[in-house]
Amino acid sequence: MIHIRLPDGASRALSASSTAADLAASIGPSLAKRTVAAIVDGRLSDLSAPLPDGAAVELVARDDPRALDLIRHDLAHVLAEAVQALWPGTRTAIGPAIEHGFYYDFDRETPFTPEDLPVIEKKMREIIAARTPFTCEEWGREEARAHFEAAGEPYKIALLDAIPKGEPVTIYRQGDWLDLCRGPHMRTTGDAGTAFRLTRVAGAYWRGDANNKMLSRIYGVAFADKVALEAHMTMMAEAEKRDHRRLGREMNLFHFEEVAPGSVFWHPNGWRLFQTLIGYMRARQEEAGYVEVNSPDIMDRSLWETSGHWQNYRENMFLAKTQDDRDYALKPMNCPGHMLIYGQGTKSYRDLPLKLAEFGKVHRYEPSGALHGLLRVRSFTQDDAHIYCTPGQLTEECLKVNDLVMSIYRDFGFGDVRIKLSTRPENRIGSEESWDRSEGALREALDQAGHPYTIFEGEGAFYGPKLEYVLRDAIGRDWQCGTLQVDFNLPERFGSTYVAPSGEKLAPVMLHRALFGSLERFTGILIEHHAGHLPLWLAPIQVVVATVTEAADGWATEVAKVLRASGLRVETDLRNEKIGYKVREHALRKVPVQIALGAREAEQGTVTIRRHGTEGTRTLDLGEAVDCLARQARPPRELG
RNA sequence: GCCGCAGUAGCUCAGUGGUAGAGCGCACCCUUGGUAAGGGUGAGGUCGGGAGUUCAAUCCUCCCCUGCGGCACCA
Question: Where in chain A is the domain with CATH 3.10.20.30?
Answer without folding.
Answer: 2-61
